[in-house]
Structures are given as structure tokens and as C-alpha cells.
UniProtKB/TrEMBL annotation, chains A, B:
Record SUPFAM superfamilies: D-aminoacid aminotransferase-like PLP-dependent enzymes
Organism (species): Mycena alexandri
Region (Disordered): 1-31
Cellular component terms per the entry's GO annotation: mitochondrion
UniProt name for this protein: Branched-chain-amino-acid aminotransferase
One Pfam family, short name: Aminotran_4
Reactions that this protein is recorded to catalyse: L-isoleucine + 2-oxoglutarate = (S)-3-methyl-2-oxopentanoate + L-glutamate; L-valine + 2-oxoglutarate = 3-methyl-2-oxobutanoate + L-glutamate; L-leucine + 2-oxoglutarate = 4-methyl-2-oxopentanoate + L-glutamate
Polar residues composition-biased segments: 15-25
EC number(s) from the headed UniProt entry: 2.6.1.42
An MF annotation (GO) of this entry: branched-chain-amino-acid transaminase activity
Key words of the record: Amino-acid biosynthesis, Aminotransferase, Branched-chain amino acid biosynthesis, Pyridoxal phosphate, Transferase
């Protein structure tokens, strides 16, 4: 995870960190008034980069606007990538991050794909910890709440030619967030989208780049106008299921021999390698192998990374072999689906009493236990002692 | 071209323009030192928008940095679109824009696709003219030079949820530019690219959005490492030719019955509807129909918007029926191609003595004549009297 693009220039150096305290700190709002991504803490982290000097002085300073040149490449050519991760505070006040190494690895992969500079992920984690420690009183105490951490890397070269930027800025901002489902899980309806694509072979769908997001806004509005919450992104003539809105997706079938199969599309270049996706797969596989049995999940579980077509979904639904379906991502963790609008008809999907299904419920319980620290695991990385 | 998204809020109103003169104007650099897109004039135009108030007060003010919130949607989700157009100054000092109505129409189409606000294109043209008039001494006097005009529209909502922004900023900056080919035309070699795509069905390739540009930087670097200047973007299993780098593309065949056929891919949703593309097609069709014969172009000309596969290109090259190939765009106008690297072999393409071919040369002559004002036409729109 070193700066491969510029081997001769300095990487990110936490020892050079400069801290300027916010002398006018804000009062965190009541947790029940939080709206996702609208409230930010008192401080932010910035690290400039240029092609000659490499990574410059990391600074933690008061949250506030940047000076941005009108010609900055990010404003014209979308040279931006980001990550989303969460810091949790347990009942004793101990703060943890969840699998931040996965985010750093993906962030560097994103940087390579878009010709932005790579960096030492461990150094950035160290600096993010410093930032969180300063603003840790912003993490709401209520269960299910967390601090959303948004590292972003943008091209800031002052020139409107299209090319690799010779200047960039990495910044990290923090936003206190409530639980995605404030009052129980609410299954969502999806619009099986064939008019628009999220990704294509040879494109950027496997990277967490800004370019994958803005084009999805209009399709989401179109789906909402038809009464569906999100897009189910379908691909190719066979209408392969790929992702749900801005989440990875899972579907559970009863196989013809009566086993239970948890399926998600493979990382074929169009699918974002989600941290929650990987965590769900890992927990399910450790259950299936007997390494770490999940509570309240009985019977044989098959875990598959394979392609699924809408034809298979329709056939399974008609045969009563569709068990459940859900999206998986950092914001919502697990988001159950109860309906797919597809080619003019609705396919109904079973959901449990509280909205979650028989496979997602035990996985979710283990996963959020590990995130919140009630279930100890290596995935939980201490920010404070 | 009115603000369809917000019919009840004010559109852009040139009468509200406020002008703040730059009290510290710069001296334009010598024209022979200009590098594309690195030098900007003394002033810029900004027009804010928000969902409640609509389009706000247009301002012409000193060129300088914006205050940009770290949470601004453009920095995270690539909510940006732009245009590229040129202002020319003729020998008498008269300044003109070339077909600006085409840019305004496309800019509004781009805005609709990415859920940014639309606007009255004529009003923006009026304001752009005001801006150019103030900085017209920045247009280099030398032949082939011009002022590149860059309207940009970005989402500036201060929230990191993915959705239509409730705040946006339209700005226009100006950059003096020299001729793309300072000393005669230099044909370029293309790498027939199958590993990466520029666009896909259901994607955004037909819109001038930032998201179409950043992902092309790495493929261009890869092509350059193999000794090719630009990517020839191929699509599908048949390897359809789509675009060249950031330009539309044209190819000229001798048909089996001896006619000359000028071909460009149709606007099927993956092709940018380029202003230069449209101008080349229009001039070629007016020649073919006899409405406006081009000088130094003899014989029957067939003008086709149709798909072309690499198989057809290879077959035509082998049979000696490949006449020429060129890119077409605002920056270079016409950019001849002399070679395509494809699946491990090079396909050589004829070029004329000065780099241009027998069809592109007469089209280019008419086109730049209309741009520079030496050939009067309705495409040339006066900025000054």
C-alpha cells in the first residue's frame, strides 16, 4: 500500500501531523435529529499531494470550506474517489473502527484506476484515529448510532487538460449518524432497471469512484416515481442481478434438494467489493464450514458467489423457493427487500415478522455485534484505549 | 431550454448581472507560450442556484478560487457537467462564438441526465458574451488562436447523501489557446482498446458529464506506454468503433463501386453529440446534395451515420479501400489518424502530404473558415459589433 505511482516521493507521514484546534466548537445536535450526512464534527483531516513533493504535511484543523480553483480537475473531470466507514463507541466509551484495512486497500485500488496517487493505508488509518479521538464526543451514545468516516481523494490540478493530475488533496470528514432503520427494519421495493446501467464490463463499477454515483440519481428518481425505493441494477440480455441502489445484494434460495443457498454476484469487474459484502460472506462461510456457527441458523447453508438472472428469481418465486433478498452496505448494514418490479409485474419476496429473513437475521446479529464490540473480533480495531 | 426541473423558480436573468472589475488585471502571456487550459483570463462568470430560490444573481468578477464545502456533492459523487466552445477574433477585431446554441442545448441535456438544474440557454449565451467582451483582449491575435470558453455546472449541496442536489453553481471561465497543431497536422496513432470502455448502453456516454473523463486517463496512459497517442474506444464483441480519446471519429472508405463514403457512428446513446461532429456531417451533406459544394473535393461523396466494426476496417485496409480516418472535436477541430494498433497488429491508414486526407482537408478548410469568420455563415455568432 505504498505510493506506487511516485516511488521517489514521500508517502503519508503521521509524524508530521500538525493540529490546529477549533476554538469555536459546536454542540453536537440531539441524536434523534440526525439526518444522514448533514452534520459534521469540529475538525477535519487534510493531506495535500503533488507530483514533485509527494504527500505533504497532514493537518487536523477546524472543519470548514476549502479554497478551490475554478480550473481544479475534480470540478470538470470527476477525479474523485471516496470511502465510507464507521467508528462505534461501546458502553464503556471505547471507540473502534470496523475493518479499516479493507477500506484502505479499496481506496488505493480506486486511486490506481483513476490515476490519483496511492498511499500507505496504515499511515492514513493512524491519522484517522487521531482525528476521531479529537472529535470522539460527537459519536452518539445511543445504540445503533455511529460516526460515519468519509475519506475522500480529489484531483486539484489547476488546468483543464484531461490527464493525471499533478496536484491532489486527501481529506477526511466525520459525520454522526443514527441507525439507518430508526424503528425496526423496513423492507424496500426495488425497480428492476433495464433502461440504465450502473456499471459495464471494462468500466469502473468495481471501484469506489464518484463517477459511479451521480449517474444513478436520475434512475433512482425514475424508480421512486413508479413507487419503488431503489434500483435493482440488471445487466445484459439475461438481466443478471448486480447491485441494489448503492449497495451490494444477496438473495437466498431453497435449492431443489431442500438446502438453503445464499448467493451474491461474483466480483467480475462490475461489482463493488463491499466491506459489508465480504463480512456477510465470511460469516456465512464460517457458519457453513462449522468454524463459527451462527446462533439461530439451522440446516445446511450453501454460500455462493455466482451470477443470478431475473429468470432464476422469477422461477424460484413461482416455485416458493425464494427465501429472502437484501442489500448490504456500510450505511444500512443489511436492507431487506420485499418486492421487485420487473418488466411490468411485481415479484413478491418473503420477509420475516420484523422485516428480516431467516438467514439475514442471524448474520446481521453477529455482524452488528462485532461492529458494536459486544462480540469481540479482530475486525474491530481500537481507536481509543 | 427553460428550467424544467423547477418551473416555479426564477430562470437565469441577464438583467440582474452584477459586475465587479478585477483591479489587478494580469498581462496575457505571449501566444507562443500558451499550453492548453493552463492560463485563465481576469474575470469569470458565476450563477448560483438553489432549489428554493432558483437561479440567483449572475456575477462577473475577478477570476479566483471558490469557497467549497468539504461535503459538497461534486467532490464526492461527481455531480458535474461542462461544455467546451471557442470565441474567435477576426482581423478587424470582431469577436464571434461558433454555434453556441448547440452547446447550450447539450448542456441542458447533460443537466437533465445528472439531476442538475436546467436553464435558459439564450440567457447564458448573453452572459457569456458579456464576459468575453470584458476579457476580449485576452484572445490572441495570431491565426488559429482562440479563447476557449468553459461553462461548468456543479452540485454544491452540503450533504453526503446521494440524491439530486438542492444547491448548484454554474460558472464560466475563459482560457486563451493556440492552434492544436502548432506546426502542421501531425497524424496520431490509436490503440484499439478492448480492456476498457468509454461508454455502454444505458450509461452516460451521450452526455458531456465529468464522469466520462476521469476513467479515461488510465487507459490513455496505458495506450501511451504502448506507443499510441490515444484510445480508439471499441464496443461489444464485434468491436464497433465509437470514439477516439475525447473526440468523435470519422472514417472514409472507397466503396466497392468506387464511391467515397464518409462514415461516423450513429448517436445511439454511447456517442457524444459533438458540435464539430455535427458541423462536419452538415458540411459533407451539403456538399453531397449540391447545396454548398466544398472546394477541392471531387467525385461522389456518400455521408453515413452507421456502425463500423474493426473487421470492416481491416478488410478495407487490406483491399486498399481505406482512404483516411480522423477525430473531430472543439479542441483540435480535426485530428488525422495514421495507425491503429489492434489485437497485436498495426493497421496503417493513409494520410496526405501535410497529414490531412482528401476528404478532411476540404471540410476542415470550410469549417475553420466559418469559425474564423473568413467564410460568413450563420454558425458564427457575433460577440462584439
Amino acid at each position: 500500500m505504498t505510493g506506487e505511482l511516485m516511488p521517489a516521493t514521500p508517502d503519508i507521514q503521521p509524524s508530521r501531523l500538525q493540529i490546529t484546534r477549533n476554538t469555536n466548537p459546536a454542540t453536537p445536535p440531539p441524536s434523534n435529529e440526525l439526518v444522514f450526512g448533514r452534520t459534521f464534527t469540529d475538525h477535519m483531516l487534510t493531506i495535500p499531494w503533488d507530483a514533485v513533493s509527494g504527500w505533504g504535511t497532514p493537518e487536523i484543523k477546524p472543519y470548514g470550506p476549502f479554497q478551490m480553483e475554478p480550473s481544479a480537475t475534480v470540478l470538470h473531470y470527476a477525479q474523485t474517489l471516496f470511502e465510507g466507514m464507521k467508528a462505534y463507541r461501546d458502553e464503556e466509551g471505547k471507540v473502534t473502527l470496523f475493518r479499516p484495512d479493507m477500506n484502505m486497500k479499496r481506496m488505493n485500488n480506486s486511486a490506481r484506476r483513476i490515476a490519483l496517487p496511492t498511499f500507505d493505508g496504515n499511515a492514513l488509518i493512524e491519522l484517522i484515529k487521531r482525528l476521531i479521538r479529537i472529535d470522539k464526543h460527537w459519536i452518539p451514545k445511543e445504540p445503533g448510532h455511529s460516526l460515519y468516516v468519509r475519506p475522500t481523494l480529489i484531483g486539484t490540478q489547476k488546468a483543464i487538460g484531461v490527464g493525471p493530475p499533478n496536484e491532489a488533496l486527501l481529506f477526511v470528514i466525520l459525520s454522526p449518524v443514527g441507525p439507518y432503520y430508526a424503528s425496526g427494519f423496513k423492507p424496500v421495493a426495488l425497480y428492476g432497471t433495464t433502461e440504465f446501467v450502473r456499471a459495464a464490463p471494462g468500466g469502473t463499477g468495481a471501484y469506489k469512484l464518484g463517477v459511479n454515483y451521480a449517474p444513478g440519481v436520475l434512475p433512482q428518481k425514475s424508480a421512486a416515481a413508479l413507487g419503488y425505493a431503489q434500483n435493482l441494477w440488471l445487466h445484459g440480455e439475461e438481466h443478471y442481478l448486480t447491485e441494489v441502489g448503492t449497495m451490494n445484494m444477496f438473495i437466498v434460495f431453497t435449492t431443489e434438494d431442500g438446502s438453503t443457498e445464499l448467493v451474491t454476484p461474483p466480483l467480475d469487474g462490475m461489482i463493488l467489493p463491499g466491506v459489508t459484502r465480504d463480512s456477510v460472506l465470511t460469516l456465512a462461510r464460517e457458519h457453513a464450514s462449522g468454524k463459527n456457527k451462527l446462533a439461530n441458523l439451522s440446516g445446511q447453508l450453501i454460500v455462493s458467489e455466482r451470477s443470478v438472472t431475473m429468470k432464476e428469481v422469477k422461477t424460484a418465486a413461482a416455485a416458493g423457493r425464494l427465501v429472502e433478498m437484501f442489500g448490504a452496505g456500510t450505511a444500512a448494514v443489511i436492507s431487506p427487500v420485499d418486492r421487485i418490479g420487473y418488466m411490468g409485474e411485481d415479484i413478491h419476496i418473503p420477509t420475516g415478522e420484523d422485516g428480516m429473513g431467516p438467514v439475514s437475521r442471524p448474520i446481521w446479529t453477529e455482524l452488528v455485534g462485532r461492529q458494536w464490540g459486544t462480540i469481540p473480533s479482530e475486525w474491530s480495531v481500537p481507536v481509543t484505549e
